[in-house]
Amino acid sequence: MDILTSLIGGFAVAVTPLNLALAVFGCFAGTLIGALPGLGPVNGVAILIPVAFAMKLEPGSALIMLSCIYYGCMYGGRISSIMLNIPGDEPAIMTTLDGYPMARKGQAAKALGISAVASFTGATLATLGLTFFAPLLAKAAIHFGPADYFALYVMAFATIGGVTGVNPFKTLLAAVLGLLLASVGLDPATGTARYTFGSYHLYDGFDPIVAIVGLFAVSEIIMYFESHATSGAGPAKLGRALPRLREVFEGFPAALRGSVIGFVCGVLPGAGASLGAFVSYSTEKQISDKNGTFGTGDPRGIAAPEAGNNAASGGALIPMLTLGVPGSGTTAVMLALLVSLNIQPGPLLFERQPDLVWGLIAALYLANLVLLMLNVPMVGIFTRLLSLPQWLLMPIVVMVSFIGIYSISHSSFDLFVMIGFGLLGYALRKFEISLVPVVLGLLLGADMENNLRRALSISGGDFGILLQSPIALVIYGFTALMLLFSFGIAMRRQTPPLAD
Amino acid sequence: MIDRIVGAVVFVISVSAFWVARGYEAGFGDPLGPAVFPQMVAALAAILSLGLMLRPDPNPKTQSRPALARQVATVTVLACYVLLLEPLGFPLSTTLGTACLALLFGAGPAKATLTGAAVGVSLFVIFDRVLGLPLPFAPAFFG
Q1: Taking every annotated instance into account, which residue ranges of this chain make up the domain DUF112 (chain A) (predicted)?
Q2: Is residue A239 in a domain?
Q3: Are residues B8 and B53 in the same domain?
Q4: In which domain, by residue range, is B8 found?
Q5: Which residues lie across from A193 on neighbouring strands?
Q6: Which of A47, A170, A176, A412 to probe the B interface (max B CBs under 10 A)?
Q7: CA distance B16 to B42
Q8: Among A2, A449, B7, B72, which is disulfide-ready with B52 (CB 3.0 to 4.6 Å)?
Q9: Count of CB atoms situated within 10 Å of the CB of A318
Q10: Residue A342 lies in a domain
């Protein structure tokens, strides 16, 4: 009952004209960014965070706009996957497997319709899950002490990408690199300047938002000349603009299964949408692929991963809001936004700022409806965008991110730091090192250290305290299992050794 | 081979980070002090980079087209843009920056100039006038 009352309160916040307008704008902009090849949700949210700052929005409204952009990107990502065979981001890769063959067969409208309904199913079920599970987890998380939080951060770093990442050494290295970057600046407890090399500019450390826009948006621009410039094929023909209603529901049971799987993957810290899409697709293939039609344009092969990745994005909001540990790359970026707005996500957020949390959840329900309306009848508009020339789009993306960062601080130094992070991001991507753990390290490093220090001052410097709480022990156990699993997979794949 | 080089570079960085952190003094009543956490992280980075050196991935595919010149040019344009933003004012520097980027991304000179002017003016109007965000307007030497 409590939950329903809170949710109604949330709707009262979400339907104020400003928030409603922001939600619709977010959905539209998100779909647009998601539909453009090469720009995924992380880039989308990273580019528009500074814009949210510039608009001087209330924290709740900013969060609503960015979450709608996030959901919108997840809906839009399928458009370039299906029409161009270019996934906008990692989770959309699975959608290309059956989506593009279907579009080639002249069934693009049907594929887009099925995937829109599947996205809606996944995202709505995940939002329902968020409504009912997040408050429960928040209640449980009140019992977490500093040592338990430390364990939780260790788990986030060990599991992020560990399951989906290419090489666990690289993923962990990326997380540790982020932690090292996080220790630049004045140490909050003692005021000691660390790794600043005498520069006053570095006393505040690296602003996560500047780092994120650099790592994702600027590196994308530099990377562009190598990765996207080669594809000469134009988009597949859309054919009939509107799919038939019956066709759209063809993959519905697959979408339901995919939603549940995706949601669970999303809640696990660090696993995120890629894992959700991957596991949903492979499970559906095992259940339904009797005639070997998967991979040649089977509707169920589109519905399952689309529902999976959208459900995972909703699920990923749960650990982000209740524990302050993001479950995916994009939620990591949103966490950076909350931290810069002086909002500390965690178990107390539901008690202290119910308007913010429930307003957000209510806005997500509305966003799903708006997105379904945008994505079924109006999909033609977004597909036409795919033929806009890159020389027009890319410079606009760059300029919006520069102006956004400049508007936060009015400091050219920050813009240079952003270019620096862009070069770092480019190098890391070249070496196939994932960027998300770097962001997570940079973002959570200070909290991780503070919790460690708090735990140690309780115990008077005895490291044993880290292993004394049962909650922490369970978390460490889970972490160890996940690590063994991912290293096991990596070792098996690497034998016989592929050294140069 | 690339992974081994990356591993070696990270190893050197983490050992130096460990070494630099040695000087940070512990405060009163703070058992951990400012040095221990960075040192723990640096040590972990060193171990992981050794792991990367011992078990590298196969070399990534070499890039198919020569992109280095354009990439260097792009970064140079971005850096010049930041340097010129305040002296030249926002509309002018953004027009120049956008036009150069459009050229690099394959637009013809006429299209690039037009895109630059359109983006420079419209972003200034949106951010400065509509959103009320003060941006430098005129070149500094006009006063």
Answers
A1: 20-440
A2: no
A3: yes
A4: 1-62
A5: A186
A6: A176
A7: 9
A8: B7
A9: 25
A10: yes
Q: Is residue A236 part of a domain?
A: no
Q: pLDDT averaged over chain A?
A: 83
Mark whether B68 and B138 lie in a shared domain: yes
Q: How many domains does chain B have?
A: 2
Helix boundaries (H) for A324-389: 329-340, 349-352, 354-375, 379-385
Q: The domain containing residue A88 runs over which residues?
A: 3-228+257-492
The beta-carbon neighbor of B52 closest among A173, A400, A416 is A173
- Same domain (yes/no): B50, B120: no
**Within-domain flag for A121:** yes
Tokens 């063994």 -> residue? A484
Q: How far is B18 from chain A (nearest CA, A)?
A: 10
Per-residue pLDDT averaged across A13-32, rounded?
91
Per-residue pLDDT of chain B (143 residues; tens, 9 = 90+): 788 888 899 999 999 999 988 878 766 667 778 888 889 999 999 999 998 888 887 776 655 556 888 899 999 999 999 999 988 989 999 999 999 999 998 888 999 999 999 999 998 888 888 777 778 887 666 54
- Cβ within 8 Å, pair B57-A498: yes
**Band of pLDDT at residue A499, cut at 50, 70 and 90:** very low
State whether B135 and A395 contact (CB < 8 Å). Answer: no
Burial class (CB in 10 A: 0-12, 13-18, 19+), A371: buried
Q: pLDDT value at position A496? A: 46
Most A CBs within 10 Å: which of B14, B28, B32, as the mutation test of the A interface?
B32
Which range, A68-77, A319-328, A432-441, has the best average confidence (pLDDT)? Answer: A68-77
**pLDDT on residue A141:** 85
Domain count along chain A: 1
B117 close contact with A: CB closer than 8 A: no
Q: Do B26 and B90 belong to one domain? A: no
With CB atoms and an 8 Å threshold, state whether A497 touches B107: no
Asked if residues A305 and A281 have their Cβ atoms less than 8 Å apart, the reply is: yes
Residues B103, B130, single domain; the answer is yes
CB pairs under 8 A between A and B: 182
What backbone torsions phi and psi does residue A272 show, to the nearest 5 degrees?
A: 80, -170
- The count of other CB atoms within 10 Å of the CB of residue A354 is 15
Maximum CA pair distance of chain B? 67
Do residue B5 and residue B50 come from a single domain? yes
Domain boundary among B47, B62, B77: B62
Which residue of A183, A403, A449 is in closest CB contact with B123?
A: A403
Domain co-membership, B72 together with B137: yes
Q: Which of A492, A413, A488, A455 is nearest to A204 (CA)?
A: A413
Find the helix or strand (DSSP H, E) in which A186 lies: strand A185-186
B41 shares a domain with B74: no
Residues of A whose CB is below 8 A from B44: 176
Task: Assess whether pLDDT exceeds 60 at residue A243.
Answer: yes
* Structure-token pair, residue A302: 């589109």
Angle at A321 between CA A367 and CA A19, to 5 degrees: 35
Q: Which pLDDT belongs to residue B140?
A: 63
